[in-house]
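The aim of this short unit is practical: by the end, you should be able to scan a pair of folded records and say something sensible about each. We start with the first protein, listed as its amino acid sequence and then its C-alpha cells.
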Amino acid sequence: MVFLGIDIGTSGTKTLAIDADGKILASDIAEYCCFAPKPLWSEQEPDDWWNATVKTVRNVLKKARLKPNDVKAIGLSGQMHGSVFLDKNGKVIRRAILWNDQRTVEECYEIERLVGGRESLIRLVANPALTGFTAPKILWLRNNEPKHFEKLHKVLLPKDEIRRRLTGEYATEVSDASGMLLLDITRRNWSTELLSALQLDIDLLGCVYESEDVTGKLTPDAAKQLGLTTNCLVVGGAGDCAAGAIGNGIVNEGILSTSIGTSGVMFVYSDEIKIDPLGRVHTFCHAVRGKWHLMGVNLSSGGSLQWFRNALCSELVAEAKKKKIDVYELLTAEAEKTPAGSEGLYFLPYLSGERTPHADPFARGCFVGLTLVHGRGHFVRSIMEGVTYSMRDSLEIFQGLGIPIKQIRASGGGSKSPFWRQIQADVFGQRVVTINSEEGPALGVALLAAVGAGAFKDIQEACKAVIKVVKETKPNSKTKKVYDKSMPVYQNLYRSLKEDFKKL
C-alpha cells in the first residue's frame, strides 16, 4: 500500500509518497506565483493549485514507479485561512485571498462589534479576529464586492478546494477549519451563534470531519487526470501547521515544535482545551482525534533573513555563487564571529506586521541600538536573535497557561543551521532536537492517509513507527544568561514603539 501527502503551500505544491512502513518513496514540487494587486494584498489562482497537484502527483508516480492501484489514500494539507469563493456551479468567483493578506482590518473590528466585543468572540471561537483569518475575508467580500457576494454559494480553504476537485465533496476538517474563526473549538463544529451574529448562512461552509476520517473517493475525472483509480480514498488531512506538527511527531503531551520558515510557528499539543483569555496565541483543534493545540505565529521569521539577503547582500550572493555555496553559510559565518546579544543591537521582526503576541498589522520591522561598532555580522545575528525572541514570546504564554514542555523539536529552514539551533536552545533555555525527516506537512498528511486507510490504528502509532530524534542541542548557560537579560528589553521595545508604528 502507498499513501500520498499533498501540501498546497503559498509558494508551491509538494506531493510525496510513503509506503505502509512510512518510508518516503518519492516527492515532487511545483511552484506558482502570488499576486499583490494592492499594497498588503495577497491572492492566488486556485487553478494554479490544481495544475500543480496534477503535475506533482504524476511526477511522484513516475519517480517511484507506481501503478494506479498502488495508491490507496491521499491526505491533504495547505496554507491556512485562505478563502476560495465559489458560485452554485462550483466556479471560482475571484482569486483566493490568502493568509498573509492584510485588507480586512475594518472587518475584524466589525466582527468584534457584532458579537459584543473581543472577550465574547474568544468565548465563542477561542480566538480574536485577525486579518489573516477567513471570516473577515467573507465580510470583506460582502462589504466591498457585493456583486461577487451575491453569487457566493460556498467558501472553502485552499486544500479543501483541491478536495472538491478530487472528490466532488464540499468538506473540511477540524484543524484547518479552526483557523476560519467560525468553528466552535470545544464542540469541533461550526459556531451557529457566531454565524447568526455575522448574518452568514451555515450552508456556505462544508461538512467538518476529524483529520483522519475518509471524506470521499476520487471522481472518475480526477482519477484520470492524476493517473490513479476511483478506489483511492481522500482523508480529512490538516492545515499546514497541524500537518507539519504531525510530520514532526507532536502528538503527545510535553512536546513543542518550533518551525522557522518564511513565518515562524510555535506549536504545542494539549490533551485539554486551553484558551488564552487575552487572545495572544491561537487555540485550535489538533489533527489528533479529539485533541487540541496552541499555536503562536510570527509573520516574518526566516523571511526577515531572506529580506536582508535580497535587499542588502547582492555582493555576498555573487560571491557565494562563485564559490558554489549557499549564501546563508557566509552570512552565518559572519554572525558566529559576533558576541551573543549582538553588542546591544536589537531587531524587531515585524516586516509584515505581527500576529503573536501583538496581533498588530501596523507593526513594522526595525533595528534598534545601532552604533559604529556594528557590522554585517551583527545585523545577521540580531535578526536571528530577534526572530527567536519573538518565538519565546509564545513559549512564555504557553508556560503561563500551565502547558508542560519537556522537549522542543526544531524544523523549517532555521533548524538546518546548527548556529540558529544553538540560539534557539539558549534563548528558550531548553534542549532543542531535530528528527529524521524534514518533509513536514506533506509527510504529516500522508501519515493521516495511512491511518484513515487502516495501515495504523491511530496517528500516535504512525508517528512512533516513523519519526525518530536524531540530534540534540543543549543550551549554553553563559549565553542563556545574556538572552535572559536581553529578552525584557526586546519586549519593551514594541511597547515603546506601538503608537509610532500606527503613525508610520
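Turning to the second protein, read its sequence before its C-alpha cells, just as you did above.
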Amino acid sequence: MLCSGAARDAFAKVAPRIGTAVSGCVYLCSMDSNPRIGLIGSGSWATAIAKILLTNISELHWWVRREETRDHLLQFGRNPHYIQSIEFDTQKLSVSTDMQSVVDACDILIVAIPSGYLDATVQEHAPKRLKNKIIISAIKGMVVEYNSIPARYFHKEFGVPYERIGLIAGPCHAEEVAREKLSYLTVACPDLSIAQIVADAMATRYIRVRISEDVVGAELAAVLKNIYAIGAGIATGLGYGDNFLSVLISNASQEMKRFLAAVHEHDRDVKESAYLGDLLVTAYSPHSRNRTLGMMIGKGYSVKGAIMEMNMVAEGFNGSNGTFHLNQKFTVDMPIADSVYRILHERMSPVIEMRLLTEQLA
C-alpha cells in the first residue's frame, strides 16, 4: 500500500497551501489508482530506483536517453547498459525517450541523472511545466555550470518552489539494491507530507526509509562524502593503512559538520545515516566509484587518465570544484576537501598533499 493513513491525513492538511500544482498527489494517494511517478535517467542508480519503485506501484513512467535502451527494456525487461541482473515486469513499464511526455504524465519526478550531465540533458530536451511538478533529486553531486546543489538549480532555472523539491539520500549502493541487501534511505523535503508519500513508494522489505526536512544539508553531505571518498581512495592507493583512514574519515565527518552548519543552519545530527552513514559506505565500499577514482590516482594514474579508464561517473570530481568555490564565501576550515581539490584540479602531487594533510589531522 503506497500511502499510509497518516500520510494521507497530512497531505490533506497541506494540499491547499501548496496549490493546484500538486493536485496530482491527491490522485497519488487514492487507494483505487496507481501513483503517477516518473523516473528521469537510466544509469545504475536510476535502474536500482526503478526496481524499488516497482515493488509498490503498478506503472512507472521512465525516461531514458537512448532508443536502444528503451527497446531493450520493453522487450527483455532489462537495462542493457547497467545492472543487467535486475529484471523488470515490462507490463509495468512505460519507457520513453521523450522527456516531455514523461513530465506531462506524472506528478512526481525522480531525477537520477549524474550532476555533470544534468543541465545539458534537461536543456537539450527542454521539458516545460517543471515548476508544476514535485521534483525529487536522486543526484549526489553539484550542477557543474552553476556550482549549485540540484535543489537550487531546479528552483532557479525552472521556478520549482523549494517546498516541492525533495531528495533521496543515504548509504545505498545500486549493486546491493539489485541483490536486495538491507539498505536505508532518507527522503528529505521541506514539506514532510510529500516526503512521506515518496518514502511510502520506496519502502520495501529490504529498503527502510525515513523522512527529513533537511534538503540542503543532505544534498551538501552527499556532495562532500564523494570528495572524502576520493581522499580515502588516494590514501589507500598510496599505501596508507586502516588506522590512518579511520582518522581521515573521522576528521572528514567534522569538516562536514562545520560546513553544513555554516552554509545552512539546521537542527541536524550528522551522525545519522543520511550524513555519516553515506560517508562511511562511500569511503570504504569497493562499490564506490569515488573511492576507486582516488585509489587509481594514488597508484599513479593521472586524474584524466583515471577518469577515462573508469568509464563511469565519479561525482566527487565536479563536487570538489563546486565545494571549493562555494566555500570562498563561507571560509570554513576544510583541509581534507581542499587537499582533494588541489590534487584533482590544480595538479598537485598526491604524495605531497597527503603528507601535508597528515600533519593537520588530529
